Amino acid sequence: MANTSDIRNGLCMVFNHDTYKVIEFQHVKPGKGPAFVRTKLKSLTSGKVVDNTFSAGHKIEEVRVETRKYQYLYADGDTYHFMNTLDYDQITLQKEVLDAADLLKEGELVTVVVRAEDELPLAVEMPLSVVLEVTHTEPGVKGNTATNATKPATVETGARVNVPLFINEGDKIKITTEKGTYQERVKE
User: Fold this and answer.
1) 69 plus 48 within the same structural domain
2) Which of 39, 86, 124, 131 lies 20 to 30 A from 171 at CA?
3) Do residues 83 and 90 make contact, with C-beta atoms less than 8 angstroms apart?
């Protein structure tokens, strides 16, 4: 059993009869009253995000997990297929388990979090950023660059991202997977 001082980003725990992963946490020690930990937890079975406050010293049941490298193969509706890069075993996961499913490109390497006791895949951790090609965007208007103006663009996976006006079709851009936002243009 762990307690609230062990809470960190990425920690997996049992909470309300479900397995949750800590997305954000903040230790708070107010001037009056006892200390507490404010957390944002994501369910690894349903993908639902909940906010919860634990009082200081509260006992939590930690879930032992392992991480493994998998390669994304293809999607079949809401079912996504992955292959272990070491032993070539294939697994299928539902879209709810994925954080940024619309940014996954075939062949992309991801980290799958697996519960150690029963080998159950719990979550998929995307790389920090992905490089994708812009397949459709409107041409930028000349002279409209005084402000940080953006326009919508569709990338090769079908995701829509706001990009600066100078981005054209065929350009490769780097996108942060956490927020799904444009980071930079990639030169080849």
Assistant:
1) no
2) 124
3) yes
Structural contact between residues 12 and 125, judged by C-beta atoms closer than 8 angstroms: no
| Alpha-carbon separation of residue 1 from 5, 14, 56, 80, 152 (angstroms) | 12, 11, 14, 34, 48
pLDDT band (50, 70, 90) for residue 144: low
Q: What is the CATH number of the domain that holds 10?
A: 2.30.30.30
Digit-coded pLDDT (tens) for 50-97: 999 988 888 888 888 888 899 999 988 888 899 998 898 899 888 877
| Residue keyed to tokens 């996504």 | 80
The structure tokens listed for 94 are: 């539902």
User: CB–CB of 157/103 below 8 Å?
Assistant: yes
**Domain, as residue range, for 135:** 129-186
Nearest to 47 by CA among 97, 115, 109, 121: 97
Instruction: Please state the domain count of the chain.
Output: 3
Report helix, strand or coil for 49: strand
- Choosing from 46, 62, 78, the residue where a domain stops is 62
